[in-house]
């Protein structure tokens, strides 16, 4: 079954990292991928997202027409910074893999959710 692994954090913390600290954290992230890719548990798909200031939000306006605004809809401390797709037997296995993610500045939590299948 496919699971989405959502990486949450405060992207402002990430942007405050020194280049050396950013490189150290990315080395840990690359190590995570090197550990799990050979197992077939990382499915195709997923993305690292740019910071929240680059977001656009679309919602229904009072007249029912779409309204586009800059930035995220909600002002939150933590936002989704990346999505990784996992292929696991069950939610427990997905959570165990997610628990090995290297949390650091700008990455404070990982959420795992089953991906909807409409087959």
From TrEMBL:
<dbReference type="Pfam" id="PF03795">
    <property type="entry name" value="YCII"/>
</dbReference>
<dbReference type="InterPro" id="IPR005545">
    <property type="entry name" value="YCII"/>
</dbReference>
<protein>
    <recommendedName>
        <fullName>YCII-related domain-containing protein</fullName>
    </recommendedName>
</protein>
<comment type="similarity">
    <text>Belongs to the YciI family.</text>
</comment>
<dbReference type="InterPro" id="IPR011008">
    <property type="entry name" value="Dimeric_a/b-barrel"/>
</dbReference>
<feature type="domain" description="YCII-related">
    <location>
        <begin position="1"/>
        <end position="116"/>
    </location>
</feature>
